[in-house]
Amino acid sequence: MARTAHRTTRATASHRWRRCAGLRIWVAPDELVQGWRDHWLFTNGITGKVESSLPVSARNDWLVLGLRAARAAILVPIAEELFWRGWLPRLIANPDWEEVPLGHYTRLAFWATAALFAVEHGPYWEVGLLSGVIYSWWMIRTRSLGDLIVAHGVTNLCLSAYVLTTDRWEYWM
Questions:
Q1: In sequence order, what are the beta bridge partners of 44?
Q2: Cα–Cα dist 159/153, whole Å
Q3: Residue 135 has pLDDT above 50, yes or no
Q4: Is 117 within 8 Å of 93 (Cβ atoms)?
Q5: Which of 157, 167, 173 is nearest to 23 (CA)?
Q6: Long-range contacts of 116-125 (CB under 8 A, 24+ apart)
Q7: In the chain, pLDDT over 90 holds for what percent of residues?
Q8: Cα separation of 73 and 69, whole Å?
């Protein structure tokens, strides 16, 4: 009986977190296609394999989990957006990158940054590519690193909440 209640709670929690657009991008392929992540395109010697870097022994330590979620929602978005949208596309566009305004578009900078962002996400490269394209497009449109940091932070916060409420630890690489 308790086991059924836990499953119902997990299913409800899973459904609740699907409202976050960024989260839907990350989990949709795995939820829509059985065994999606097991395909050789996502699990191989180059992209790695889907597994959590969080030790099983730490999965019940709320301090560790809280710090991990805070890092994902606060530190990672700041560092990644400064690098991926604030610096790298400008460097690709012009080695004298400080002369290039935020949100400046060149085809090479846009696609190289999106592709490298995808590579950083290992076996989740396809959703990393889609996220990289969306974030880069948003940067060109708004020229606001702050918007991107907030969007990235909300996505990571939703993903952290999803991981914690569904025990889908593989999303915490």
A1: 48
A2: 10
A3: yes
A4: no
A5: 157
A6: 116/84, 116/88, 117/84, 121/173, 122/47, 122/48, 122/173, 123/37, 123/42, 123/43, 123/47, 123/48, 123/49, 123/50, 124/26, 124/37, 124/42, 124/50, 124/173, 125/42, 125/47
A7: 84
A8: 6
In tens, the pLDDT along 148-158 reads 999 999 999 99
Rounded Cα–Cα distance for residues 82 and 84 (Å): 6
Q: Which residue ranges make up each domain of the chain?
A: 2-171
Give dist(CA 38, CA 2) in Å, integer. 31
Distance (Å, whole) CA 131 – CA 119: 12
43 — alpha (psi -120 to 50), left (phi > 0) or beta?
beta
Enumerate the β-bridge partners of residue 48. Answer: 44
Query: 3-state DSSP call for residue 23?
Result: helix
* Stated pTM of the model: 0.85
Q: Whats the size of the chain, residue-wise?
A: 173
